[in-house]
TrEMBL record:
SMART domains: GARS_A (SM01209), GARS_C (SM01210). GO terms for molecular function: ATP binding; metal ion binding; phosphoribosylamine-glycine ligase activity. The keyword Nucleotide-binding applies. Residues 108-314 form the ATP-grasp domain. This is Phosphoribosylamine--glycine ligase. Its EC number is 6.3.4.13. It comes from Bifidobacterium moukalabense DSM 27321. It catalyses: 5-phospho-beta-D-ribosylamine + glycine + ATP = N(1)-(5-phospho-beta-D-ribosyl)glycinamide + ADP + phosphate + H(+). Pfam families: GARS_A (PF01071), GARS_C (PF02843), GARS_N (PF02844). Pathway: Purine metabolism; IMP biosynthesis via de novo pathway; N(1)-(5-phospho-D-ribosyl)glycinamide from 5-phospho-alpha-D-ribose 1-diphosphate: step 2/2. It is an enzyme of class 6 (ligase).
Length: 420
């Protein structure tokens, strides 16, 4: 099979790499991809993910069997609908189903209607009433831009001033543009966070191993929220019974609710969850693979990813099997200044990896003497080992010897698992 993957980041690199590992896919092209992917024999083509007509034309002219849509923006723009209209199979939700990520208010209302456990919330579309609610409710409290904000639209405010500053950021400074036309204000939930992703086809779904992301920029969960600075799997401090409860009280009723309400979901459903004293609750849903979770979950896949997705697209039952014995851990190298004022141009050193480690490239471009940093998150180094500590040691042994001038990384990815 020939497959086109849409996207350009480390997530899409991990998806393409897993497709090529499987055996049923002979050729993978990523649009637009990045030059780091070519080091793995992955083809790239300079097509904009928002140019649906050009992508449809490219797929037809080059005889791709199907398309895997990686990022959220083209999904929410309706690229799967446009492929379907052209008779092209694409793995991902259509525009109506992608609202589960495109609007936090949509997701919250869905959960409220179907008794899916999540934080209590209110939605506002202007500053004064939202500020009044914060003053009445008190802190800690969580402020979320309703629409897409590249993982940076959430503020966990530990005091009222921080909450009001976040609201002014959204409504006065319009930091997130149209994504901030509404805000969702949620109760603060306490507990360990974890990510539960599933392959979904209507009301059928196949859960993946859970992982834990690290959102804050700096060690000790300090600094601003980012798209994610590293992840690991499994998450030993989250028991299997909590995962089983999450599957039965969150994932199953969500996919059934989407189908019941006329927006059936096909693709990857990402449930960002928190294990509270009252049980697992939803923090957010995404309509695609998480990043950086994908880079530590897909290396655990022992079956053929392409064959599994092909089965789903053909209405057949897929097979997904996982390595439950070993651990995976990945650390992001980010450009200096990320996520606020990104400084581009840092030289990317050659990174020594072996059969049990890998580099997934994200924000890189070709420079005069090799790859250079071209956006916030530059790459992720992942290692697999018998346990989290060994995987952690291996990743940092690789990264600590590199010249990372112009970049930074967290030194404590996986520490929560080791300190639990």
């Amino acid at each position: 099979m020939k497959v086109l993957v849409i996207g350009s980041g480390a997530r899409e690199h991990a998806i393409a790499h897993a497709l090529m590992r499987g055996g049923s896919v002979s050729e993978v092209t990523v649009a637009p991809g990045n030059p780091g992917m070519e080091l793995d024999g992955i083809r790239i083509t300079q097509l904009n993910p928002s140019n649906h007509a050009a992508l449809v034309e490219f797929v037809k002219n080059n005889d791709y069997d199907w398309v895997f849509v990686g990022p959220e923006v083209p999904l929410i723009e309706g690229i799967v609908d446009d492929f379907a209209a052209a008779g092209i199979k694409a793995f991902g939700p259509n525009k109506a189903a992608a609202q589960i990520e495109g609007s936090k208010d949509f997701a919250k209302q869905l959960m409220e209607r179907h008794d899916i456990p999540t934080a209590k919330y209110r939605t506002f579309d202007e500053l004064d009433r939202s500020v009044a609610y914060v003053r009445e409710h008190g802190a800690p409290i969580v402020i979320k831009a309703d629409g897409l904000a590249a993982g940076k639209g959430v503020t966990v405010a530990m005091d009222e001033d921080a909450a009001i500053a976040a609201l002014e950021d959204i409504f006065v400074d319009h930091r997130f543009g149209n994504a901030g036309a509404k805000v969702v204000i949620e109760d603060f939930l306490e507990g360990q966070e974890f990510s539960l992703m599933s392959f979904v086809n209507g009301t059928d779904f196949w859960p993946m191993p859970i992982s834990q992301d690290h959102k804050r920029a700096y060690d000790g969960d300090k600094g601003p929220n980012t798209g994610g600075m590293g992840a690991y799997s499994p998450v030993p401090q989250i028991s299997q019974s909590v995962v089983d409860t999450a599957i039965e009280t969150i994932v199953r009723p969500t996919v059934e609710a989407m189908a019941d309400e006329g927006t059936p979901f096909t693709g990857i459903l990402y449930a960002g969850l928190i294990a509270t004293a009252e049980g697992p609750k939803v923090i957010e849903f995404n309509a695609r693979f998480g990043d950086p979770e994908t880079e530590v979950v897909l290396p655990k896949l022992t079956s053929d990813l392409g064959a599994g997705i092909n089965a789903i697209l053909n209405g057949e039952t897929p097979e997904f099997t996982w390595d439950d014995e070993n651990a995976t851990l990945g650390v992001v190298l980010a450009a200096e200044g990320y996520p606020v004022n990104v400084v581009k141009g840092a030289a990317i050193p050659e990174i020594p990896v072996d059969a049990n480690s890998h580099v997934y490239y994200a924000g890189v471009s070709n420079g005069a003497h090799g790859l250079v940093a071209s956006s916030g998150r530059v790459l992720l180094v992942e290692a697999s080992a018998s346990d989290i500590k060994t995987a952690q040691d291996k990743v940092y042994e690789i990264i600590d010897q590199l010249d990372t001038t112009g970049m930074f990384y967290r030194h404590d990815i996986g520490a929560k698992a080791l300190n639990a």
